[in-house]
Design a protein that fits this description.
The structure is a single chain. This protein is an alpha+beta fold and 314 residues long. The chain contains four helices and 20 strands. It folds into two domains: 8-107, PRC-barrel domain (SH3 type barrels); 115-299, Rieske Iron-sulfur Protein, CATH 2.102.10.10. It has helices at 68-71, 93-97, 115-149, 201-208; strands at residues 8-11, 14-24, 31-38, 45-49, 53-58, 61-64, 82-84, 103-107, 156-161, 172-180, 188-198, 213-216, 222-226, 232-236, 247-249, 258-260, 267-268, 274-276, 288-290, 295-299. Strands 1, 2, 3, 4, 5, 6, 7 and 8 form an eight-stranded mixed β-sheet that branches. A four-stranded antiparallel β-sheet has the order 15-16-17-18, with no helix packed on it. The structure holds FE2/S2 (inorganic) cluster (FES). FE2/S2 (inorganic) cluster (FES) binds at residues 239, 241-244, 261, 263-264, 266, 277-279. The site of FE2/S2 (inorganic) cluster has 12 residues, from loops.
């Protein structure tokens, strides 16, 4: 049984407050802390480690392993150190936790930390990657082998109008649906997304380094060229680390915003360059054009995740 986010929290039979939020480890999807707002719903929110929850009496009530005095010594929640799972995408997290809809927080990465954190995430990622890889091996192999049997799909998809991207150097997400067909299976509609940035000359230079970007079909023929001075740049919605969805997010250290991937906390700037985290390469720039009416069109190219070079899969 899991408590509701409004459940009462008791210490030594005395109510000390109500659960207002939970903090989740973005890697394990386990709850690491419950946040208890002190009495009357007006007080401060205290961060209680999950190990201090002695008993879940019912969905409406939990008992903490502390006295009222000790409860007052739990740290106050520093809200700006966390993002909600509405702001970053963690697939099926709420299904997994079985919590009532409400505020579920994940910690923001500590950008100021350097090598030790990077090493930690690299090791953690490898361990988790191995576990995840086992049940996924068959579909992944099929996916990897697909290009051997099927030419790339170089069709153009309309994703929306560029008028929506009003500010420079801010990520804007376009969602679109495309059909996908496996052999012997009916076609499925898959929801996808890309991020578009209206780029200043500095960002254009950071992305293209002054050179037009060519895209190729499976025979090595050029199918499209993104001009180095294109005012709009589109990035694949998949994180190049392991393929999670990421979001544009303002942080304390980057008040203008960065692309933040919640799965292993890779961070990219508006030019798609890796600022922090385990991502092995920048965000993948897509072949993109904007027609006379402002319609954004892309070729939905996909590259292999987890490697430092772009290897086209679809
Ligand atoms: S999938 Fe690992 S950081 Fe994005």
């Amino acid at each position: 049984m899991q408590p509701k986010l409004t459940a009462k929290a008791l210490c030594a039979d005395k109510e000390v407050g109500k659960i207002s939020k939970v903090i989740v480890d973005p890697l394990s999807h386990e709850i690491s802390h419950v946040i208890v707002r002190e009495m009357n719903g007006q007080g401060v929110e205290r961060q209680v480690p999950i190990g201090q929850v002695q008993e879940v009496v019912s969905e409406e009530e939990i008992v903490l392993r502390c006295s009222r005095e000790e409860f007052g010594r739990f740290p106050v929640l520093e809200r700006d150190q966390y993002v909600t799972v509405k702001e970053v995408e963690i697939a099926h997290l709420e299904d997994h936790l079985h919590v009532e809809p409400g505020e579920i927080l994940v910690p923001l990465p500590r950008l100021e930390q350097g090598v030790p954190r990077r090493t930690f995430f690299t090791n953690m990622t490898h361990a988790i990657g191995t576990l995840i890889a086992l049940p996924l091996a068959f579909p992944v192999l099929k996916y990897l082998m697909k290009p051997m049997f099927k030419p790339y799909d170089n069709a153009w998809f309309s994703v929306g109008n560029v008028k929506k991207v009003s500010k420079e150097n801010i990520g804007f997400q376009f969602k679109f649906t495309r059909g996908f067909k496996e052999a012997f299976m009916p076609e499925q509609q898959i929801e996808k997304n890309i991020w578009v940035v209206k780029a200043t000359p500095a960002v254009q230079k950071a992305v293209y380094e002054g050179n037009d970007r060519k895209f190729f079909d499976d025979k090595g023929e050029v199918i499209w060229v993104n001009k180095a001075n294109s005012p709009y740049i589109g990035y694949s919605g998949k994180c190049p680390h392991l393929g999670c969805g990421y979001k544009w997010r303002k942080t304390k250290n980057f008040p203008e915003g960065v692309f933040l991937c919640p799965c292993h906390l890779s961070i990219y700037d508006e030019a798609g360059k890796v600022i922090d985290g385990p991502a092995p390469r920048p965000l993948d720039v897509l072949p993109m054009q904007v027609d006379a009416g402002g319609e954004v069109k892309i070729i939905d190219v996909e590259y292999k995740a987890g490697v430092n070079k772009q290897i086209r899969l679809l």
